[in-house]
Amino acid sequence: MTTSVDTAGPAGAGTRRAGTSTLRFLAGKVGAAAVSLAFVVVLGFLLFRMIPGDPVATMTRDRPTSPEQLARLRERLGVDEPMVRQFLDYAGGLLRGDLGTSYIYNRPVSAMIGERLWPTILLVGTATLLAAALGLWLGVRAAWRRGSTFDRAQTGIALTLWSVPQFWLGLLLLTATQGLFPSRGMRSPDIPPDLLGQALDVAHHLVLPCVTLLAVTYAQYMLVMRSSLLEEMGAEYLTTARAKGLRDDLVRARHAVPNALLPTVTLVFLQFGMVVSGTVTVETVFSWPGLGLLTYEALRGPDLPLLQGLFVVLAGAVILMNLVAEVLYRVLDPRVRAS
Amino acid sequence: MWQRRRSAAVRVWREFTRDRGGLVSLGVLGAVVLLAVLAPVLTDPAGLDVTRADGLPLRPPTWEYPLGTDVDGRSVLLLTLWGTRVSLLVGFAATVLSVLIGTVVGIAAAHLGGWVAAALLRFTDFFLALPSLVLAIALSSVLPRGSATIVLAIAVTSWPATARLVRAQALTVEGRPYIERAKALGGGHLHLVGRHVLPAVLPLVLANTTLVVGNSIIAESTLAFLGLGDPNAVSWGSMLQTALSSGAVSAGAWWYLLPPGLAIVVIVLSFTLVGRALETVLNPRLKGDRD
């Protein structure tokens, strides 16, 4: 490092300064995310251990339980230990990847979350990719023809969809497409075990939940893409490009859109929190066997250890995604890096 | 002073009426609130009692039951009308609490400065990043079931956006010379905030409030749909929950599904449009951007 600075002269010194500032930026962001994660861990403890007063009473309020069962449950959850001891046990368990044991299913919470993770990633991933593609495309069209009927109709549709509860949209789709698509789950029981047949079956089940999630999330991409392109459209380099005789759609595709794309790319990660909320209701409506449906099942109990694990994992994932968005924004946009 | 305020209000109203969408939405909201308030006068609440329902279960609309009947043979029209009361009440209460917390935190973060402001800002950002529905679910599952819990859960998860907005607006006011003058004349914190900062921030808070109501009503229906609402009250969310769990959805009972959902969409869209119209009037920078 030092030798390269000596030989490279002023330019090398410049890169070194940029390097340390990037490092400091990264350290700051990672540190802030770590503090947030610690907050989530404490909040998880407060919510599920301290607010209920007696978690065992909360969990068993709707079912007949014998005193022996209650005593066994109290011992297993350790609710009679001092609060500090309970918190240390809980935090230590988290560090080892131990999220406790589900009260209803009597299985490790981390294993249950692991099983349900992939269906959710499949659903959320597909919906996000499609929503981003659709939103960007519509947003570019709307901004380029600002004030046109297309633009107004798009903004109107986006505002209306914004006012629609996700679960209701799912219920409507279910009723409207009676029998065209499977109404629940991820697989049919009677499908031959070959890969193509299985994949097609899962895709068939995926259509309705995916469309529901897509309909309520694409609007955000569209509106952000539209306003960020509108900002670029006054820029002088576009006038230059036009003056050089470039066709209108080439000016758009080669110059305006790439610059306007940046805020939207990070939106994919920033929107993750909203998407997580969406999966809870959409998976409940379509019985899609992911983390959202697991949350709903835990709620029915209520299965506090399972809910606690889901809360920590989902909130932690959102914090990580926000971190990715912040870092990505700096990596992608040279203007942010320089300032 | 009062005359100036009144003429300002008249000017805002005149500009607001120019936005046709906002004006129509305001009319719709007025009518819905009136219907909700008058529901006990216009209808007989006995029809909500499952044991005294006299219709056949899950029948499509007829003259006697204009919107059909639910699984227990109750009139869907009656249920939707009474659902308005719970949805609006919970939505308003949650909004008031949320905006109150957000305004206090936002003004404190802008006015106090130093490490208190930094800590408040950090705290706000943390809550802003949390997945709100997951936190609301967690809160409503550990607290006793009921409308008060739902109100609390929605308020606790929705205040950070207001806090950010209020802080940003309050900061622009804090930098102005008249605040410095008031400080130099010996004005205390309460005087500064009460007489100068708050009046400058309130118009924006008002516009923001109408947007928060819409979100709160959606959040209420979502929590009720997940079975976290007051089990004894009829709300739009709980109607839709019954529709799914009782098999009315798979039976294709569209008349049971459409009224509560459309009611939510109409109310939320109206609040959003009124909020946007108010924002355009109160925030001159947006003018010309929204046409």
Automatic annotation (TrEMBL), chain A:
Assigned keywords, A-Z: Cell membrane, Membrane, Transmembrane, Transmembrane helix, Transport
Main location: membrane
Topology in the lipid bilayer: Multi-pass membrane protein
Pfam families: BPD_transp_1 (PF00528), BPD_transp_1_N (PF19300)
Entry's transmembrane regions: 26-51, 117-138, 159-182, 202-224, 260-286, 306-329
InterPro entries, per database record: BPD_transp_1_N (IPR045621), MetI-like (IPR000515), MetI-like_sf (IPR035906)
Gene Ontology BP term (one): transmembrane transport
ABC transmembrane type-1 domain segment(s): 117-329
Entry keyword annotation includes Oxidoreductase: no
Subcellular compartments: Cell membrane
Record has Iron as a keyword: no
A GO term from the CC aspect: plasma membrane
Homology family: Belongs to the binding-protein-dependent transport system permease family.
Official protein name in the record: Peptide/nickel transport system permease protein
TrEMBL record, chain B:
TM spans (from-to): 21-42, 88-121, 253-278
Subcellular location: Cell membrane; Membrane
Any single GO BP term: transmembrane transport
Keywords, sorted A to Z: Membrane, Transmembrane, Transmembrane helix, Transport
Residue ranges occupied by any ABC transmembrane type-1 domain in the UniProt entry: 84-275
Domain of life: Bacteria
Matching InterPro entries: MetI-like (IPR000515), MetI-like_sf (IPR035906), OppC_N (IPR025966)
Location (main, coarse): membrane
Pfam families per the UniProt record, alphabetical: BPD_transp_1, OppC_N
Membrane topology: Multi-pass membrane protein
Gene Ontology cellular-component annotations: plasma membrane
UniProt KW Repressor keyword: no
Family indicated by similarity: Belongs to the binding-protein-dependent transport system permease family.
Name this polypeptide is given: Peptide/nickel transport system permease protein
